[in-house]
Amino acid sequence: MTKTLVTGATGFVGRAVAEALLDQGRTVRVLARKPQHRALQDLAVEVVKGDLTDPASLQEALQGCARLFHVAADYRLWVPDPPTMYAINVEGTRNLLRLALEAGLERVVYTSTVGTLGNPGDGTPGSEETPVSLADMVGHYKKSKFLAEQVALEYAGQGLPVVLVNPSTPVGPWDVRPTPTGQMIVDFLNGKVPAFVDSGLNLIHVRDVAEGHILAEAKGRVGEKYILGHQNLTLAEIFGMLAQISGRRAPRWRLPYYPILSLAYLNEFWSTWITRRPPKIPLTAVKMARKFMYFDSQKAVRELGLPQTPVDRALGEAVHWFRQHRYVKEK
Question: How confident is the model at residue 255 (pLDDT cuts 50, 70, 90)?
Answer without folding.
Answer: confident
